[in-house]
Design goal:
Helix content is 65%, strand content 0%. It is mainly α.
Length: 153
């Protein structure tokens, strides 16, 4: 008889997804759900929470079937650059404007990899900024300031 093999990493991740889904499902139930044809404000968050719980259940099921690898070292550099990037964007987009905020956000996030060189990070940030302006400003026509009041524009 085979012994039960459990991938602890996926088990923890799956349970975290299930608990997060339960939390958001509970929060969305307090809103009016409505029906599929006449959705209320809580309908879409509730459906997303259910999908999150379902995906968490699939991950837990997979964790029980397959033994996984040991968890490696924590990527502190990635967390130090990726986590502050969207916070920086949110705090500066109104003052700097969309173009500089996107550029510096991408520049901050680019250094999450130890392989990223400064010149390549600047090029990547510039290309992402141009792409974002083309898509969001010209393509979708979203009404935001490209350059903000902090820059005197």
């Amino acid at each position: 008889m085979n012994s039960l093999k459990i991938d602890r990493t996926n088990l923890v991740c799956g349970l975290a997804l299930i608990l997060t889904g339960l939390f958001f499902a509970y929060q969305s139930i307090e809103l009016e759900l409505g029906t599929a044809l006449r959705m209320g404000p809580g309908y879409f968050p509730f459906i997303l929470a259910c999908v999150l719980m379902l995906l968490g259940g699939v991950i837990v099921f997979q964790a029980i079937r397959v033994e996984g690898e040991a968890v490696g070292a924590i990527a502190w550099r990635g967390m130090a650059f990726i986590l502050p990037a969207p916070i920086f964007f949110g705090l500066t987009v109104r003052g700097l404007g969309f173009v500089p905020a996107i550029f510096f956000t991408a520049l901050i996030a680019a250094f999450a990899s130890h392989k990223m060189k400064p010149l390549m990070a600047v090029i990547l940030s510039a290309l992402l900024t141009v792409f974002s302006v083309l898509v969001f400003s010209y393509g979708l026509g979203l009404p935001f300031r490209r350059f903000g009041p902090w820059l005197g524009m």
